[in-house]
Amino acid sequence: MKHPHRVVLLAGPSGSGKSYVAQRTGLPVLCLDDFYKDGDDPTLPRQNGAVDWESPRSWDAMAAVETIARLAREGRADVPVYAIDEDRRVTTRPFDVADSPLFVAEGIFAAEIVEECRRRGVLAGAYALRRPRGATFVRRLARDLAEQRKAPRVLVRRGLALLRAEPAVLRRQTGLGAEAARAGEVLRGVAGLLAGHPHRS
After folding, report:
1. Contacts of 153 (CB under 8 A, 6+ apart)
2. How far apart (Å, rounded) are the C-alpha atoms in residues 142 and 152?
3. 131-159 pLDDT, tens per residue?
4. Model's pTM, two decimal places?
5. Are residues 129 and 16 in contact, defined by beta-carbon separation less than 8 angstroms?
6. What would the pLDDT profile of 14-44 be if each residue is shown by its tens digit?
7. Contact (CB, 8 A) for 148 and 199
8. What CA–CA distance (Å, rounded) separates 172 from 180?
9. Residue 183 and residue 129 in contact, taking contact as beta carbons nearer than 8 Å
10. What pLDDT score does 8 carry?
11. Cα–Cα distances in Å, from 175 out to 38, 53, 111, 126?
12. Nearest to 102 by CA among 182, 195, 19
């Protein structure tokens, strides 16, 4: 089945600039972080008694795929809005890709659904954003502090752990089918995909 819209998945370590690069494509952007499970979900993975939010199992992959598939078919869907400071979805909002043949879905777990999106025929491309680890650490910490996501001490400790884990995160994402790419390479790749859609108005 040929879908009128297709998705470009954009993964990458936390704080690597996925949201910024996604916006720079000029395409509609679906935030996959809004598909985290609620904090009281009994299926959440735990480590040392605390929820492991870095695990893909803390995220509702099936809900994300179903939403992407609906957007590919119909061009619109209601999507969740997740409040990180409350660890839950607080509302929904309408999302519309309008007349764009492509839309971006970005998030740390985007690579987890590459194969399923490909199987459903809705995948246009998949990237894992890479940048110098030190720059990612600084960017992530500044963002999280500004947004008051957690207590500063927690954010620093988490940031250092993510800094150490970053190479493994990228290996996993590329192993799942995302292409490792810097920001400019992602933008050129998306431009190439759009060039294959001359009907875009």
Report:
1. none
2. 10
3. 866 666 677 677 777 877 678 887 777 76
4. 0.86
5. yes
6. 888 899 999 999 999 999 999 999 999 999 9
7. no
8. 11
9. yes
10. 98
11. 28, 21, 9, 12
12. 195
Question: Residues 181-196: pLDDT tens digits?
Answer: 999 999 999 999 999 8
Tell me the C-alpha distance between 188 and 195, whole Å. 10
Closest CA to 62 of 103, 110, 113: 113
Specify the residue for token string 């500063």. 152
Best CA proximity match to 110, nearest among 67, 157, 154: 67
**Quick one: tokens of 120?**
């459903």
Give pLDDT, residue 64. Answer: 98
Task: Give the Cα separation of 128 and 124 in Å (integer).
Answer: 14
Residue with tokens 């929820």: 51
Which residue in this structure is represented by tokens 């910490």? 141
Length of the chain: 201
What's the token pair of residue 8?
């470009």
Report how far residue 2's alpha carbon sits from residue 144's, in angstroms, rounded to the nearest whole number: 40
